Amino acid sequence: MSKKPHSASADGEDVLIKDGISGFLNPAEMFKLRRLALLSRYTVEGNLAGAHRSPKHGPSSEFASHKPYGMGDDPKHIDWRVMARTDKYYVKQYEDETNLRVYLALDRSASMGYKSADGPTKYEHACRLAAAVGYVVVKARDSVGLFLHSEKVDVRVDASNSFQHLNNLLKHLQKSPPSSGSGIAATLHEIAASVSRRALIVVISDLLGDEDEIALAMARLRKQRHDVIVFQTLDPAEMDFKLMKACELFDLETGETLAVDPNALAKDYRKAFEAFIEKYRKSFAGMNIDYRVVRTDQPLDNFVRAYLEERRRLSK
Amino acid sequence: MFLAPLFLIAAGLGALIPLALHFMQNKRKVKLPFPTLRFLKAAQKRSASRTRLENILLWLIRTLIMVLLGFAFSMPIIKTGGLGWFGDAPRDVAIILDASYSMAYKNGNAQIWDNAIEAARSIIEGLKERDRFCIFIARSQPEALIAEPIGNKQEGLARLKTVTFGAGSSQMAPAIEAASQALKKSQSGYEKEIHVITDNQALPWQGFAHSKTADAVSPESKSIVDPGTRVFVLMLGVSNPENTAPFSVTMEPAIVRKGSSAKIKVTSTRTGPPIASAMTLFLDGKEAGRRQVTVPDPASSTGEFTLPALGVGIHEARIEMPDDNLIIDNSFYFLIDVQERRPSLIVGYKDDALFVRTALVSSFAGLVSMEMVAPDQLTTKKLTDYSSVILCNALPLTGQAIGSVEGYVKAGGLLIVFPGSKATPEDYKAWACLPGVPSTVNLVPTKEAKTTLSWDKPLHPLIRPMQEGLGAAELSVRRKFSWEKVNESAEVLISMGQKHPFLLERTYGSGKVLMFGISAERTWSNFPLSPFFLPLVLQCTEYGSREKPPFIWATDSLALADYFPDLKGTPSMTDPDGKAVQIRSMTEGGKAALIAADLKKPGIYRFAVSADTKAQPAFAVNLPRKESDLTPISEEEIKSLVGIEALHIATDLASFAKQTQESRVGKTYGEQLLWLVLLLLVIEFIYANKLARRGRDAVLNLKADSAGNLNLSKEAVRST
Questions:
Q1: Which of A14, A121, A132, B482 is most buried, with most CB under 10 Å away?
Q2: What ipTM score was computed for the predicted complex, to two decimals?
């Protein structure tokens, strides 16, 4: 019995992986990611037993506190040594360990559809990043959910810890190309409203919205004691602005056009862009939010591996 | 004015090209997607004014380039002269060819003269159908090869072939004046041009300096060319010429006697930096000595040679210096006439000539022989047998005797005149060769009898040898001449008291006349008894006894009687190359004279009195050494000397032709504009590159590590 579901599961997994994750990660990348874990820096409220600290008392071996014995308490939990000293009945309480619920908040706004040269679009890169994170999470038997949004939350998938679930989740990504318009701040508020229990929210977006509003939405997530990670996905061309010839650029979100001479503007553009990044960095650092810039020309497996290693090191 | 005005349209259209390109570029711009324009708008807002300024500047430069390019191709010209709009008016051209012997200077493989002829040929061949030309050869006096403008080029070229450079110097002032005179006959509507072809020598232009000095009162009042005449000078010489040449030869003593030795001093001249050189003396074709000299160092540029004892006769001699670029003046020819000792002839009666005769016989026996003849017997003597003729109170003489004596002097003899009491002032007036004519014989009061002789010309060859040791010479004079007039060409060698002439000298023909102011008698003064009487008399007899100079300068003609007074019949004469020299007979002052023509070739000329006699050396002819000074003249100096407003100077034929063309048509600025375009292109390239590089070189200060951690530069952090 145990072999069949496993094999069936294994078979099923194989089939599912080929259909879902294999569209984003190749076996070599998955191999590299197999022993990694995404840890939360704070206590989380899961629905299953797991490896993450929970705010509730549970059956773990880690002593938490004593409480007076009451109706319904199992007598076997009475601490007899305390009763001998105090002549009162106290029950031992232990920390609860739960699983991690990770929600991937993926931006599919029009600007995410940008790509330069032969590289992937920011959206494609973001999907691969989401797949990698999801793979790591599910592999650690934690749950992963999805909020795919543009101006609003377009797709919501609740957290679950099976590869099948991950595969289904990723299929949503494949089906939903970048759309027009962007409303990151609003969707983050929407996510905050819908996820009440403490979870890990992984925001993958280019954050090309109003910085202050986005920061406000992030603050709300943190206020609800969610652990938040922000992966700002950017294309090298929009960071370096190394266009060779004068051209007319049109805004992917607004459709607005602008004739530019890259040589004349490059210096000032880079200054403005640096200021934009720095504002997020300062703002997120103040909220204890992990903020990372992900370039689409950067090898993804290396990035995920380096980031998770660093996070694990800092969590100790 | 523009030579190709159609290109102005191109200039106008060209100015629109940058603008059109700008618009075309805007239209053809590639449309690209971009995530957001918010940063671009911010950047554009920040750099808009600067970018606009840069773009306007670039547009201006590019427009300027196109406009200037169009202008350059339209060949703008500024007309400076000439009658026709495009230099199509006919012209009369006077070509002046410098024919001094400095034109024989070798410049590379060819002589300057060859280049000058080629240049003249090129000028003639370049003339248009209606143009005319005349040719003048600049020598010391201008020679008209073609005196009036003609249009026949073939004739001009043919005549040009016959011209050779001369043996002397050239003067540009008279040549330009002659050319200007010839052009005055030009028809109206003809442009007038004078083309001077010369080397870089300063000498030909010195005439302008002299004429300027002469016209110093109002230098503007006289211009040798008409205001409308343009003068072009083609200077084909080298800028730093070098030339070394023997300059002159002097012999001491002047007369070389058989068995005695003499010294030859040779001076040299040099143009250019000092150089060690050598002088070689050749006697009768054989080398007789060599001296090292440094020219032009005054202390060591003179070579001294001691002559060996030579036999009686005329010996050919020449000094040679090493070959340089001007070979023609490297040799200096002269003749050494070694003579037997000849007697002096004293003309006078025994008492009158007592002191002179006694002085010559007793004191210098063996050195100077003498004969004596009474005045009325003078015509019986052949005077050329005597080295000097001394008249002692011998006047008056017959006309025949006077003519005989004057002919002797003219041919190179020496006449010494001691006056006496027999002659009246009228007797002196019959003479043409005397240095002065006395008016009266004055009796000197006893109080004023004592007088001192002073040496007016202490460096004179007659005075110099005897000056030392005599000290102050005092005389007691009882009678003396009062001079009616002293000839302009005469020199006072010794004076008595307050500048009263005591001894006068005059060169007459090839000879000399020495005339004393007092007699050689005891009744006039104590001069015959004074200690300096004997040396002075001896010095006088030796001085000027030379019959012929050792050399002559190249000349067009020479009267043979001046050198050969005893010549009878017409001799045959040959030049240094053995070619016959033309000798023609002319009547001068009622007398027939033989003139040797065209003695311009340096070297030894020979003549034979008859076909039976052997030819003997007659003259040593040398080129005038003034021309050996090749000191160059600068263009500025020529312009300041000549003072002609429309004077153009070129140093090669191409620029000469260009100047001529520019002067007629106008100066085109196409080339200069093209250079300006090139400069602007470079500026545009550098500026545009700088702007492009500024964008490329801008560095993104934002760095992220492999885990996506941001590392912002301090500058970026500060800016936020």
A1: A132
A2: 0.77
